[in-house]
């Protein structure tokens, strides 16, 4: 199992346990982990016979996301530090101490956006994991991440909403599908929501019975608010 998969499993377990039902932020922990990993690579320094990795990491959240994360930031900070330790070991980076991750709030960030920074030296005193507020952006940020579904596109399936994220969201009867259909007439991988620029499209995956958009069969079509999608 990769260190990223192991991180996802551990965070997933936390979200199904003590924090079940409270986490609804479009900023996903795995995306934060990936971005911190890139910050680690970008911030490494080469010494005599060793490559040193940064020890201090900061994650800036929007006020809305910080409210949603709430007390989960303490758990997430620890899991991210564990992930970064494993990543450094995997890449033969030298760590002089355990990485430390702190969360802060930036008023200039919108829901679904976050930034990270990395510093070679960790803070002398461990910073609190719960987000502290900063009204002005700092100048050291390495990345500004835009959630692929920045407009928070959602689809309603049965009696609940599903947030569309990433570039492709599978729909079908398989347990691995992000949108799972309990319809015997649906194919195992029936269709997919596909991110196209700033929009989303529905694409039929050569399903046995086809896909209807507003009552008409489609192979692929852009979606608009209020569209109704059905498996035949």
Structural notes for this entry:
It contains four helices and 17 strands. With 232 residues, the protein is α+β, with helices and mostly antiparallel strands. The strands form five sheets. The protein has a five-stranded mixed beta sheet. Strands 11-10-12-13-16 form a five-stranded mixed beta sheet, with no helix packed on it. Strand 14 and strand 15 form a beta hairpin. Helix 1 packs antiparallel against helix 2. It is elongated, with a radius of gyration of 20 Å. Mean pLDDT is 79; it is low at 135-151.
Number of strands: 17
Give the terminus-to-terminus CA distance. Answer: 38 Å
Order of helices and strands: HHEEEHHEEEEEEEEEEEEEE
Instruction: Please give the order of strands in the largest beta sheet.
Output: 6-4-3-5-7
Mean pLDDT: 79
**Helical amount:** 10-25%
Low-confidence stretches: 135-151
Coarse structural class: alpha+beta
What is the count of DSSP helices, taking H or I runs of 4+ residues? 4
Indicate the overall shape: elongated
Q: Please summarize the sheet with the most strands.
A: 5 strands, mixed
Radius of gyration: 20 Å
The fraction of residues in strands falls at: 25-35%
């Amino acid at each position: 199992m990769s260190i990223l998969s192991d991180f996802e499993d551990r965070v997933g377990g936390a979200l199904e346990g003590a924090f079940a039902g409270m986490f609804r932020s479009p900023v996903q922990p795995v995306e934060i982990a990936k971005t911190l990993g890139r910050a680690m690579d970008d911030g490494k320094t080469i010494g005599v016979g060793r490559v040193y990795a940064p020890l201090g990491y900061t994650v800036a959240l929007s006020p809305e996301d910080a409210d949603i994360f709430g007390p989960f930031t303490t758990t997430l900070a620890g899991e991210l530090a564990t992930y970064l330790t494993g990543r450094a070991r995997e890449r033969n980076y030298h760590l002089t101490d355990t990485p430390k991750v702190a969360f802060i709030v930036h008023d200039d960030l919108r829901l679904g956006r976050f930034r990270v920074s990395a510093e070679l030296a960790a803070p002398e005193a461990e910073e609190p994991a719960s987000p502290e507020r900063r009204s002005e952006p700092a100048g050291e940020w390495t990345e500004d991440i835009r959630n692929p579904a920045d407009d928070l596109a959602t689809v309603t399936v049965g009696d609940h909403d599903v947030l569309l994220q990433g570039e492709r969201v599978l729909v079908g009867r398989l347990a691995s599908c992000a949108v799972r259909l309990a319809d015997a007439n649906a194919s195992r991988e029936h269709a997919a929501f596909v991110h196209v620029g700033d929009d989303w499209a529905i694409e039929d995956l050569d399903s046995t019975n086809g896909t209807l958009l507003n009552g008409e069969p489609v192979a692929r079509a852009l979606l608009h608010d209020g569209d109704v999608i059905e498996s035949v």
